[in-house]
Amino acid sequence: MTMPQLDLDGHRFQPQPVLDLDDQHDPYDSYPGLLVATCSCGWTGAEPKIPRAARRRAASDGVPAAEKAAFASVPPAERAAEAEWRTGHAAALATTVPPAALADAVHTVAEQLEALIEDDKPMAALAAVRLAGGGFPDQTRTAAQRASYLDYSWAQIGEALGLSKQAAWERYGKDQPPQPQEDPAELSPQEEALLRAALAESGDWDTRRAVAALGAAGHQVTDKRAREILRRLQRAGLLFRGNPARAVYTLRASARTAGGER
């Protein structure tokens, strides 16, 4: 008869032969079938108990090793070890540690959220977090900041999470890591064209205006590509977002000097 399954996250029963353990078990070397209860978390049970009859026979000279092992290598050895693991270790954790299957399911959701973010679908990840009723703080922060980088407004990000624009910004926007600076000397032809348009015209630049300016310069681009170009010019230090909550860019004064040298 087997015991009911008890599989806790990070705590799995692992019976170990005495001979696989350290020197403290040397007195039991004559009984290779003995098992000690251990757990995947590092817990180790007490030393195995040798049946009295086995001790008496082991003390006799000339007893074959196979016969000595027979006293301990029967199925009760593993059952006894598991019983010790359950009563001496797992029972105290059963009300505080989630089942392994549930923990695996949560880890799977976290991995799926990260996959959405890496696939540039942070708004879908935020919607999933809201559907789950919250949680996943690391993934939520990364998704919110990625969505902002992709030019979603903080009002849209807040709406996806069921928060106000201000609450979303306060919670996830204030500590956005700085974007790495890129070399403005390595701009693509499309990026050069948009920079020239920004140098020639004043005012703010959003996606729609960037698409129109690039089209007039002979570059037909999608909204997504226009946003990428605007972000690229921002990372090169040529444009900046005056209001992080809006995907609107303005030419830096220093860019006019750099533009004149191009």
Give a description of the structure.
The chain is mainly alpha-helical. The chain folds into 3 domains: 16-92, no CATH class; 100-173; 184-260, Winged helix-like DNA-binding domain superfamily/Winged helix DNA-binding domain (Arc Repressor Mutant, subunit A), CATH 1.10.10.10. It contains 12 helices and 4 strands, in the order E-E-H-H-H-H-H-H-H-H-H-H-H-E-E-H. The chain has helices at 52-58, 65-70, 76-88, 100-118, 122-131, 137-149, 154-161, 165-173, 189-200, 207-216, 223-235, 253-260; strands spanning 16-17, 35-36, 239-240, 250-251. The strands form 2 sheets. A two-stranded antiparallel sheet has the order 1-2. It has a two-stranded antiparallel sheet with strand order 3-4. Helix 4 (100-118) packs antiparallel against helix 5, helix 6 (137-149) packs across helix 8 and helix 7 packs across helix 8 (165-173). The longest helix has 19 residues, at 100-118. The relative contact order is 0.08. Residues 25-30, 51-59 and 70-74 have low confidence and may be disordered.
In oligomeric terms, what are we looking at?
A: single chain
Taking the alpha carbons of the first and last residues, their distance comes to 82 Å
Are there runs of 5+ residues with pLDDT below 50, and where?
25-30, 51-59, 70-74
Mean pLDDT: 78
Order of helices and strands, N to C?
A: EEHHHHHHHHHHHEEH
What is the 3D form? elongated
Radius of gyration: 33 Å
Number of strands: 4
Helix content, binned percent: 40-55%
Helix tally equals 12
